[in-house]
Amino acid sequence: MDEPPDDDTVSSAPPGAAALKSTVSKDLRWSPGQLQATDPDCRTNLPPTLRHRYVAERNLVSGDGADLLLVRDRETGEPAVVRLFHRDVLPVDESMLESLSRADRHHLLGLLEWGSDDGSTWEVLEYAPGGSLKELLRARPGPWPPQTVQEVLNQLLPTLEYLHSLRIVHCDIEPASILVRSTEPLDLVLAGIGLTTFFAGAQVRQTTSHASAYAAPEAATGNMSTGLDWWSVGIVLVELLTGRHPFQRPDGSWMDDMLIARKLIFNDVDLSMIADERWRLLCRGLLCRAPEGRWGAAEIRQWCAGGAPALAEPQGPAFTFAGAVYTTPQALADAFRQRWSDGRRLLAGQRLDATQLLALQEWTGECGLTAFQRPLDQPFRPDRAVAQVVRALDPTGPAVVQGRRVDQEHLLQLANEAMGEAGPARALLDVLYQDGILAVLDDLPGCSGYALLDSQWRRLVDDFVARANALSLPLSAESRSLYRAMLLLAAVPGEEEALAPQAAEAAADPDAQAQPWFAHLARENLSEESRPAHHAILLHAAPLAAGLTTRQRPGHELQVAETENSRVRSTRLGSPLAAARQRTGRTQREVAERMGLSQARVSAIESGNIETTEIATLINYAQAIDASLRISFAIGNVEQPILDTASRLTTDRGGNRNSDEEASKPFLTSREHEILLLWAEGATPETMTKRLQISARTIAKHKERISRKLGAPDQIDTILRARQLGLLSTQAYGSEG
To answer: What is the DSSP letter of 501?
Structure first.
């Protein structure tokens, strides 16, 4: 067996080739008798599907969410590698894996098969007996002769060209992922492409290499371009040519990810240890910090042919954001304005001391931006944080939030747009209000006096909400958002009376005026500073007051019922509930009285979809027509009853209640009675929320109190008990409580 060459001997084979021959031959020794059981050194079991075809010899490595096992085919003895993922099931793209399994194995490690079995996802890969480039470097440390490094480059170049032609970015190229099929002649193959996903609408390699010392500066931003791989190749070449990784200290220790990120902000990779000028040129082209200036396959081929492709201009301090490199604060501010969501994600790292955020602070300090060095005052409000950063980077630039101009001219347009219908404009105004962003933008071009405007806006909104609460007017989240937009318009100097015309029209509505409380509200004469909020209250209260007047008019329910009956008759569809009622001889009006509901509501119940009707409503209806309700499950030929109201009915068939029950009738507030009536009608919590303008949580609390007062354990018993006590009548109101 050949001995490794001396340190100062140049071999035509890669250094360390002979040193690996003993390892290769050891791995390849086998006999059929040795393949009957798993090697005791192997700590990981194969999935059942693979167990009958392969025998596991030993664990190769564990980490990165998977175990690698060296296995042998039980029939042929051929070695292979099984990657067994730790996650139970991984989603895979079968068509993509089929494509990779047919890929040219001259360039890529062969993907033999894959699958999921026994709760595990696995793939079977070609075995490269020569180990990896990392092991070659360990066996024979660099610097390696230029002609040997050229041989490595000659194999990596077509491999990456082929990989990129498949629209795959590897993202994790390092000596450990470059495997050695043989050392004489040198035959390298790229590993790490298997269960993966595609990039840019095609295929993307998911990786954790962002913290790797071989990763390009833009890798931390999620950029997925082929330039990531060429940067990694440049780092590998520097390591081979100098004998040391550029981010490795002389004592062999490594810089941490944060220090590497900081160094790459201000400085290019140090290439002074590369003696050959031509190789220095190549590495400088591959390790350009700006992705758009970095060399790719075309420039490398030109260099290999003896050419000297142009290099990008040297950079000063640079910061990488959203896949691009920025060297001036103004350019970075523009990028934040255009990529607002990316900025939000970056600044969320301030609570975690994220590497990229710390790098941004370092870069702004180098650029002399002392304003940015002050802590961001509200780390849990990311939109405000982005606005603060943009202002610090470019204090004379345009006022933009979430991609929209918000100087005074555009802010008025935004407010008018938000007053139309719920949508992006109203959502943006909510962000401006909740995060106090107008104050951050104060004195930017077109934003003079924004701090005062923000204060006035908040005062008007607070006044409006306080008055709505004092009048017990329902105020949904959507209503709050709408009136914030209105009050922003009224808060602008000179626009104080913007809502006055609409408010005057609302105040004159005769139906609204019929309510004494609204008439009193409309007559109020408030101070000038309170008038905008008063106008908003009139606009909000008028339709509520008018609706109350309409509902109180005699004959309103009868008209609604007749309209509903006409609609039902026009459909010419029968109703099983109506048919049952008719068999009992009850009229719809009688059933309505016995249920404590309006005739319109009974008509709606009968004409509705019985499959979606609440069970409590059906029980109430059954009792009103002197019937009981039975529900059961049909399980094969067996019927399993689950509900029979015949045993729960305690009132007499005439619906009379005894005097003891009448005397013990619990007191319900008017609000509780409203909810009880809707509950008995089968209204959903969403319907109650919309009709009563209170939150679902408040409705749930009222329901709990009603059931407790009635001594009922559940909804059905609550409705039955309420009916027994005559509480399902529209006249059974308590006082407000």
So the answer is: H
At 384, list the tokens.
């405000």
Which residues contact residue 475 at a Cβ distance below 8 angstroms, ignoring those fewer than 6 apart?
465, 468, 469, 540, 693
Total residues belonging to the chain: 737
Tell if the pTM clears 0.85, that is, is over it: no
Give tens-digit pLDDT for 136-162: 888 888 899 999 999 999 999 999 998
**Which pair of tokens denotes residue 436?**
């106090």
- Token reading at 199: 């990039």
Token couple for 582? 């008719």
Instruction: Yes or no: say if 463 and 411 are a contact pair by the CB < 8 Å rule.
Output: no
Query: What token pair was written down for 434?
Result: 């909740």
Judged against a pLDDT cut of 50, whether residue 499 lies above it is answered with yes
* 604/371 Cα distance (integer angstroms): 65
- The H or E element that residue 18 is part of is helix 17-28
| Local structure of 671: helix, strand or coil | helix
Helix (H, G, I), strand (E, B), or coil: what is residue 248? strand
Mean pLDDT, range 527-548, rounded to an integer: 90
Instruction: Name the residue among 495, 501, 497, 500 with its Cα closest to residue 408.
Output: 495
Domains and CATH numbers, the chain: 17-126 (3.30.200.20), 140-304 (1.10.510.10), 328-397 (no CATH), 408-552 (no CATH), 564-647 (1.10.260.40), 664-724 (1.10.10.10)
Terminal CA-CA length for the chain: 98
User: How far is Cα 229 from Cα 173, in angstroms, rounded to an integer?
Assistant: 7
CB count within 10 Å of CB 539 equals: 18
Tokens read off for 723? 């009916």
**Taking a C-beta distance cutoff of 8 angstroms, is the pair 53, 72 a contact?**
no
| Cβ–Cβ < 8 Å for 225, 169 | yes
Which spans in 553-658 are helix H? 556-571, 576-584, 588-595, 599-607, 615-624
